[in-house]
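Holo model, adenosine-5'-diphosphate. Inputs:
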Amino acid sequence: MEKITEYFGSMVFDERVMKATLSEKVYKSLKRTIDRGVPLDISVADAVAAAMKDWAIELGATHYTHWFQPMTGVTAEKHDSFISPAPDGRVIMEFSGKELVKGEPDASSFPSGGLRATFEARGYTAWDPTSYAFIKDGTLYIPTAFCSYTGEALDKKVPLLRSMEALNKQAMRILKLFGNDKVRSVKTSVGPEQEYFLVDREMWKKRKDLIMTGRTLFGAMPPKGQEMDDHYFGSIKPRVAEYMADLDKELWKLGILAKTKHNEVAPAQHELAPIYDTTNIAADHNQLTMEVMQKVALRHNLVCLLHEKPFAGVNGSGKHNNWSISTDQGENLLSPGETPAENAQFLLFLAAVIKAVDDYQDLLRLSVATAGNDHRLGANEAPPAVISIFLGDELTAVLDAIEADKPYGGTKKEKMQLGVDVLPKFSKDSTDRNRTSPFAFTGNKFEFRMLGSSNSISCANIHLNAAVAEVLKQFADKLEKAKDFNKALHDLIKKTIKDHKRIIFNGNGYDDAWIKEAEKRGLMNLKTTADAMPHICDKKNVDMLTSHGIFTEAEIYSRRDIMLENYVKTVNIEAVTMTDMARKEIIPAVAKFAADTASAVAVKKSVSKAACKYETKLVTDLSELIDAMDSATTELEDAIAKFKGITEIIKASEFVRDTMIPAMDKLRSAADKAETMTAEDYYPFPTYDKLLFGV
Ligand code: ADP
Ligand code: MG
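Output:
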């Protein structure tokens, strides 16, 4: 057996390879670019490109691609081969610094939300040297940012990098105030826990809904769902175990630190978590992980479903975004310290996150809003659509003490002005209350749990970083001017707790009583994408995002439109798929069963005086359901036709929310009922019991 330590990262142009293949001078220069963003000289770029090409060819690569993350949510790539004609009619393998640094895909079909007129539809890609290049399927992948010619971001990486830079800038100001002079940069890190479902590929092929939309649009609950909780952390079945082993190996080759895998709550549901990394690398790796998960599944005759809600009635899939801020000296700024000064610094960063989450609830909520995730949030499984923070009892008690100007913990030791000299070692709270929270403090990081399984983590982190950067800026503005730093610090933390404690909630987030309580506290409850997305254009959000250079105003409007387009198109495809399945598969199957039963009645009655009570009732009930399905389908068809006529995007999203989705629910409800009454042999595609327990 090959050793993991030998093949881990074998397909990655990482530090080790750079050191081995670049001259000392080129390596140092590249490192300066990676670590400190110093622009790369073209001669250095040429040398790096040549080394990359030789290394890639050695490992069997023939092509290279600028890999980027357009607003579609999935990654994009266009492959060019290294070949270049030689005078003697043969070819040589070439790759220049210019080709490495900048690409020009003819990418006019990617959504730009009106940022590009068609005559200048081309965008360009720019190398992100902070994320390593890698080889996959015979191609050298170069992680890149994607912009328009006028410099607007057309992707999710550019604003993510900008948000990390904004947070770096403001956090550095705060650290200076605490006398932290050694620190040169501050970065955010993320460990995304990824949930997914596996279904048998042969069964998958028989379901148009899974093929077209990634989720089941019909399906009655099987006799057994997740109520026994026997799948959660249960022993992994051999076929799934083989898949997971194969997946780990592929990810490890790509330098992805896949670490934890287990069965999740729902049958056929699983989770994979990597070891956390710098946010932009974590984002690249998560995109890559999702792609590899789906590809490896096919080899095992499985299909990996990343949809947020593949099956109604059992848990959906999310992605937990574990987030922290740390310095280049390795200090985690969200980790309670040992000394009073460290504690004060920790409490300030904590206060900043609390205020940021409260002030920008809407930005966080809408950063995870998609048609798929709307099925989870607030649906009694995932966190509710209301944002709140879980801090646990101990930390909440510390904040209460600060707010009330009372010493915490009762020790008689010298107190700082904050009234807190020693913080308790916060044990990781893994109670159920914690697990229902959308945004939980877990000892030295925050876990943002609202992300959907198929979301790019970039959006959530762009808004989170931006919001925290803004609050740190406000804090730094105040503290830099203060005559008495300690007093100003104390007052600031105290005031922040007082003003923003409404966002702290340590109870059960699934409880209906909480939603009422949240309303009283004035927290936002943005139930759907249609409700949430327009808020990105609220003045306070536009002002904040533009002031930190995260987005231009045009970029913000374009993003709102793209995300809403995505929402309405997704639901529309689902609606059309439903009418198609209802008309061509479900109604004919149920009608055939009803007709066969009816002829059986006729035959039976012709030979005996049997009353045929059972059959008669069945035929009557089925006929009613067939009519109900037919009229619901007609209603949905009408909605689809009306939808086509709506050109304004906000109106379209409201129509989808208020008319299209309720019509879909109506059709589904009739069809699911019919399914439970139709003989299995007649049913046109595999039902939930087979899909969920068939692997
Ligand atoms: P769970 O929440 O399921 O108990 P873990 O405690 O194992 O899971 O952590 C989940 C994720 O959090 C992992 O990806 C892990 O690497 C990541 N993580 C741990 N510490 C940090 C940190 N300081 N910053 C960001 N992510 C972290
Ligand atoms: Mg977790």
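The chain has 23 helices and 17 strands. The longest strand covers residues 186-200.
Archived with the compound record.
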